[in-house]
Amino acid sequence: MMSTPPPPISEPDPSALTCPGDRVGLCSGCQRKTHKYGSGGCPLCQWCMAPVQEKWGPGVGYTSTRG
Ligand SMILES: [Zn+2]
Question: Is the pLDDT confidence value at 51 over 70?
């Protein structure tokens, strides 16, 4: 799962290709286009999200916890 390096940032995240255009935004990490807004959106593309999920677990980005 970690064996594939991310493509150049000129390549959008696959999620950006399958969501409505008005939900596309730039990844907070690498600035590539990704499904950022609305239901199922995420501020990070899948390549930036992968190490974060590994550290924090699934669901990060969808809920915020206090503390
Ligand atoms: Zn990214």
Answer: yes
